[in-house]
């Protein structure tokens, strides 16, 4: 069973963290959820990683500030910059050593990019694999909601205005009472051709837990981020980029630009799928993640072997 924990960050925000898997695992996986969601987005992948037997990694999943069971954030801290710093702190507290695989969905993927931008030395020395799911490195550049450009522009303008109002509405959650009425629109926006009831339930639950401040507050930062240059500088980190061809928020153009920027990245476009790939297509996402973890574990084993051989040679020479 996962162990539940909490940490308090430097600005006083409390993060709810779930840790599972062996403490001495060769690799640690950190799972980052999307905007207005929570760590339960990754429930199928956590199960798949736990099913790897003796090769199972340590798995860390946490609720982003202002989401899930984590504490509320101040409006000025509802930024991707802050989320990148939060990820750095989670790694220092829960995975201070050893190789790490980072998996991010939507805003979680953007958080990983911000961590790479703000903490390049930590990233290069620790990260052994990446899974970027339904995310973007170019803000809202490619987001047209599956609508004609003029209509999408009007919708974005209304969304931006509404986000500003919500951001100033505080840490309460009155929208939970409205979720049944919002359900058809959320299903249309976030899911593709098929939508299992269980997947929609997890999604609606995450949205219901997010505060109005979080729903509105992160919008400006998410829309403005530009991190293709950061990705291009990462070198040969093993990476898989996944997107659904029915994704209305981060369409295939977003994933294609990420894969083009990341040297050697593998791109997977899933037919008929929308934005919620970890829940919509759990088997495909789990397979991609397990593959990256196995690759990272093999690399770690080779590194340990090489270090041991070097130590032996030095002792013999002495």
From TrEMBL:
Record InterPro entries: AB_hydrolase_1, AB_hydrolase_fold, AB_hydrolase_sf, Epox_hydrolase-like
Signal peptide: none
Pfam annotation, one family: Abhydrolase_6
Span of domain AB hydrolase-1: 29-286
GO MF annotation terms: catalytic activity
Coiled-coil regions listed: none
Protein name, as recorded: AB hydrolase-1 domain-containing protein
């Amino acid at each position: 069973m996962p162990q539940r924990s909490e940490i308090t960050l430097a600005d006083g925000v409390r993060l709810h963290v779930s840790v599972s898997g062996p403490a001495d695992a060769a690799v640690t996986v950190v799972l980052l959820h999307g905007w207005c969601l929570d760590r339960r987005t990754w429930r199928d992948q956590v199960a798949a990683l736990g099913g790897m037997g003796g090769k199972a990694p340590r798995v860390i999943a946490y609720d982003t500030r202002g989401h899930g069971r984590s504490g509320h954030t101040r409006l000025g801290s509802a930024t991707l910059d802050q989320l990148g710093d939060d990820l750095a702190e989670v790694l220092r507290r829960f995975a201070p050593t050893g190789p790490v695989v980072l998996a991010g969905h939507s805003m979680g993927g953007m958080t990983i990019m911000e961590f790479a931008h703000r903490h390049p030395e930590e990233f290069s020395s620790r990260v052994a694999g990446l899974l970027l799911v339904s995310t973007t490195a170019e803000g809202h550049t490619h987001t047209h909601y599956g609508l004609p450009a003029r209509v999408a522009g009007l919708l974005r303008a209304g969304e931006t205005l509404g986000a500003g109002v919500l951001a100033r509405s505080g840490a309460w959650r009155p929208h939970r009472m409205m979720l049944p009425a919002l359900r058809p629109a959320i299903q249309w926006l976030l899911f593709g051709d098929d939508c299992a009831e269980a997947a929609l339930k997890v999604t609606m639950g995450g949205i219901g837990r997010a505060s109005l401040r979080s729903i509105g507050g992160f919008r400006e930062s998410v829309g403005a981020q530009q991190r293709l240059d950061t990705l291009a500088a990462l070198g040969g980190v093993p990476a898989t980029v996944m997107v659904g061809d029915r994704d209305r928020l981060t369409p295939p153009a977003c994933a294609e630009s990420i894969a083009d920027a990341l040297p050697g990245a593998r791109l997977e476009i899933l037919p008929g799928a929308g934005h919620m790939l970890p829940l919509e297509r759990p088997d495909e996402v789990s397979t991609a993640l397990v593959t990256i973890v196995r690759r990272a574990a093999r690399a770690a084993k080779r590194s340990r072997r090489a270090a041991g051989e070097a130590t032996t040679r030095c002792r013999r020479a002495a």
